[in-house]
Amino acid sequence: MPVPFEALIPLGIIVAMTGVTGTLLNYTKRIRHEGKPPRISLDTWDTQMMERDRRLTGSAHRQSSNPIAPKEFSTNSVWYLTTKKVLH
């Protein structure tokens, strides 16, 4: 029994839309990660290195090959000071 050609039109639309949404999702993920594939299965080491890269370069996805850190690296610490109000 042959397939009626009317059934191929919705099938083509479904396949095209699936391809378009998959491509757009991949594109937006790569844009968000500055052209690199997204990182998966991050452990503590990876998150610490991403924080270090963010402090060195301003972005968690770029890395620096400069062996000497810029001056700003010494003052932009991960440990932020908080002020607490003491009630007497």
What are the SSEs and their pairings?
Layout: H1 8-32, H2 44-57
Describe the structure.
It is a single chain. The chain is mainly alpha-helical. It has a domain at 1-30. The chain has two helices and no strands.
Protein traits:
elongated; 88 residues; 2 helices; single chain; mainly alpha
Quick overview of this protein structure:
The protein is mainly alpha-helical. It is 44% helix and 0% strand.
Shape: elongated
Main sheet summary: none
Number of helices, where a helix is a run of at least 4 consecutive DSSP H or I residues: 2
For the terminal residues, how far apart are their CA atoms? 88 Å
Q: How many strands appear in the DSSP assignment?
A: 0
Helix content range of the residues, please? 40-55%
Output the helix-strand order. HH
